[in-house]
Amino acid sequence: MSPIFFRNDDVTDLTPQLRQVTDLFLEEGVPLHHAVIPCRATERLVEWLRTLAEREPTRIGVDLHGWDHQTFQGAPEFGSRVPSSVQRDHLVLGRDWMRERFGSLFSGILVPPHNGYTRTTVRLLHELGFTGLSGWARDGSWLFRLAQPVLYGLNRGELWGWNGRRFPGTRIVQCSVTVDPVVDYRTHRLSPVEAVMADLERTPSAVQGIALHDWVLDGPGLAWLRTLLRQVRGRGVIRMADVVAATC
Known about the structure:
By secondary structure, this protein is α/β, with parallel strands linked by helices. Helices cover about 40% and strands about 15% of the residues.
């Protein structure tokens, strides 16, 4: 099995569930990256996460999850209809905010909201000193995999089949998730752990990533998560930042 990492999105406040999920990862000895939305983040979240990342630098990562996680004319924050100038402004705002509050603890990785980005986004990340991008490396038909580079080159889509490598012509490493275990975000229904493990085995990628949202993982979700963490432990679980470091 390829190396696995975990990414927890939409981090904005120090909620009981965020604490519980993070404590569970630490108890089980499994690394976890938190993707923070700066425009919505509270100071108590920043203080807690900075202290935690300082204490556990090999197990806790801190990423940028866009600037405000808002749509632009119906498109994701870094989607194909978002002008380069708007994308640049949001990346600069987010980068500077993260550096001011987390310093070297900031991974340099962008987690684009809704996993949407374009070639323009990647170029801007390269120009602005980022190191990685974590979207969604989805599986698809052979025809769709052939079309990916064309769509990306036309600035109309993501480059899903590039996980674990630098985007062409840049220093930016793709470290995207490959499995989202949530079946229904409204009801918090999760795929069985056995199905998640089967997805990890089946998905062809140099590196595997599991997407999490701590607000989904309530009582039954925490029990599900503990089972999953015990299943993957010993299978090469790494930090998302380790994917970037190994490629650079």
